[in-house]
Fold these 2 entries.
Entry 1:
Amino acid sequence: MPAARTSRRAVLAALPMLAALPRPGRSQGTAGGYPDRPVTVVNPWPPGGSSDSLTRILMQRVSADLGQAFVVENRPGATGTLGHGSVARARPDGYTLLLGTNSTYAIAPHLYASLPYDSDHAFTGISLLATSPQLLCVHPSVPARDLEQLLALARAQPGVLTFGTSGIGGTSHLATEMLMSMAKISMLHVPYRGGGPAAQALLAGETKVTFIDVITALPFLATGQIRALGVSTTERAPLAPDVPSIAEAGLPGFQSSTDFALLAPAGTPDAVIRKLYVAASAALRAPEVKEKLDAAGLNLVGAPPEAWPAYLAQESRKWGDIIRARNIRTG
C-alpha cells in the first residue's frame, strides 16, 4: 500500500499546473471542422451532485469557446457503469463524451465480475479535470474531538461504531476501508444509495462516522450538527482550512479523493482529443469558471491526455489492492 500512495503523489506532482497549460492559440494539429454539430456529454450520475455541477459549468464555457452546444445528459445507474457503457458503444468521432469518476473507471473493474464494456480499452483520456476531497465526519454523540480519539474509541469497541457510505465500492466506502486498514480498526458498514442519504443518516444519528464531500458538509459543520476530524487528501481543503488532513492527524500517507475526468470512446482521433483538451483546460482557467468550481470545493487539475495512462494505472492498482485485501464484494 505505501508504494501505491507514493505513486499517486508522484503522478499528480508531474501533472502541469493550470498556468502552464497550452493556450488555445498554439498549434495542436487539425480537427477539420470539429465540432460542426452538438456534442453530448454523458454524466453517469444523477443531477445535483459534484459531477453534475462540474460538467455543466465547464461545458457551458467549452460550448461558448467552440461555437457548438455541449449538451449534458444524465444517465445514472449501476455505480456509473450504465453511462460508461453507453459511451463505450458510441461512435468514436468526438460527438459523445463522458464525465467519468474514479469510482467507475478505476474502482468498478475490480468490483464487478463483468462489465458491459472493456474497461481497460474502451476509453481515451482527454483530461483529468479536478479532484474533490472529503471530510471524515462524526455525529456529535461520538466522544471524539480528533482523529486520534476516534481511532482509540474504535479500537476499544471493535465493530461497534457504524460508518455510512454512498454504497458498496464508492469512494466514501473505500476511503473508510483504507482508514480501517491503515489504523487497524474495525467499524460496521452501513451502505446507502448515494452520498445524500448517507449524509442524512449521519445527521440523524443512524450512523456515527461518514466521509462527506466538503461542500455538502460545510453547512452542517457550521451549525454543529456534525463534526469534522480530518480531510481525505494530503493537503487541507481550502474551504475547511482548520480541519487537518488525515495524513497529518495521525495516518501519514493517507490519500483519497473523488476524481473527475473527461473521456471519449477509444479510437477518437488524436486531433479531436487535443482540441477538446485545449478547450477544457482553457475553460478551467476562465475566472468565472474557476470561481464557481472553487466554491464547489473542487481542486482543479487540467492534466493533458498524455498523463492519463500513468494516472489510470496507479489509481486502478491502488484501489484494486484495497478491494482485494479487504475482500470487498458488491453482493
Note: The first helix runs from residue 2 to 14.
Entry 2:
Amino acid sequence: MTISYIGIGSNLAQPIEQVKQAIENLADLPETSLLDASSLYASKPQGPQDQPDFVNAVAKVETQLSSLALLAALQQQELAQGKIKKRHWGERLIDLDIILFGDEVINLPELQIPHLEMVNRDFVLLPLQQIAPGIQIPNQANITTLIERLPEQFIFPIENLVNSPK
C-alpha cells in the first residue's frame, strides 16, 4: 500500500461542488481508500487572469495501484466528472493531480512526482500541510520550509468567504 496525495482544483460549474464531488469519488477508485481531505481553499488563477478564481483541496489516499495506474484512474474520474480544459493553465471543470506518491521520485513523460510545480503553489502546499503537517517532500525540504519560502500567499480557506462581513 502506498500513501498518495492528490491535488484537486476547479473553477467552472459550481467549483465548490465539483471539488467536493471529486473528493467523494476518490473513495470509489479501485484498490484505493480515501483517508483524509483538506479544507477547501479559494485561489487566484496561476495562468491567464481572465478566468474565475479556483477552489482547491488536497486529498490523502492509500492505494495498491501503481503510480501510472492511479494516474489512469484519476484521468478516468476527470472524464466521468466532465473535465473541460480550454487552455494551458486555464479554466477547468475538474483537475486531479498526483502531487506525491509515497516517497517516490518519478520522471516520466506522462507523470512527474513530486509534482513539478508544487513547491511554488500555495494552493497545493497549504492544504497539504493541513493534512500532512511536517511531511518531507522528496528531493526538496519539509512542507513548513517550502511554505516559508513562498514569496506570497494568495489563497484563503473557503470558510472565510462564508463568515466574512458583508
Note: Residues 10 and 94 are 5 Å apart (CA to CA).
